[in-house]
Amino acid sequence: MMENKLSGLLGIAVRARKVLFGDSAYEKLSSKEASLLIISDDASDRTLKQLENRANYYNVEFVVVEDLLLNQATGKTTAKYCLIIDRGFSKGILDICRKR
Fold first, then answer.
1. Cβ atoms within 10 A of the Cβ of 14, count?
2. pLDDT category, 89, cuts 50, 70, 90?
3. For residues 50 and 47, what is the distance between their CA atoms, to the nearest angstrom?
4. In the chain, is it the N or the C terminus that has fewer CB atoms within a 10 Å radius of its CB?
5. Is the distance from CB of 93 to CB of 9 less than 8 angstroms?
6. Is the pLDDT of residue 77 over 80?
7. CA-based nearest residue to 62, from 44, 41, 38
């Protein structure tokens, strides 16, 4: 049930163009727009460590979610992480993640 809510909210954020992927997401982590980093549990240990360190340095919250959930919600089958740049979507996603 919670996965459906999370997937739906993340999908809406993608359609609203409030989600960044890849290099643009990595670069925006240092900006004030960055509000939530979502990392796939399928990401390599090196990638996970780099993203966690960068998120902690810039005080950006992050969550680790299932690879399948991230891929289905965003429509990107190779995405290992994404960055939410809207505070409202971030708050909603964090609330759902904390309940599960």
1. 18
2. very high
3. 5
4. N
5. yes
6. yes
7. 38
Please name each of the domains of the chain with its CATH number: 2-99 (3.30.1330.30)
Token readout for 2 is 């919670």
pLDDT at 97: 87
Q: How far apart (Å, rounded) are the C-alpha atoms in residues 98 and 16?
A: 23
Strand order in the sheet with 81-84: 19-21, 81-84, 36-40, 61-65
64 - beta bridge partners? 39
70's tokens: 């991230």
Note the pLDDT of residue 1.
Answer: 66
What 70-77 contacts at long range (C-beta under 8 Å, 24+ apart), as own/partner pairs, is 70/10, 70/38, 70/40, 71/40, 72/7, 73/6, 73/7, 73/8, 73/10, 73/11, 73/14, 74/10, 74/11, 74/14, 74/19, 74/21, 75/11, 75/14, 76/21
pLDDT of 98 reads 87
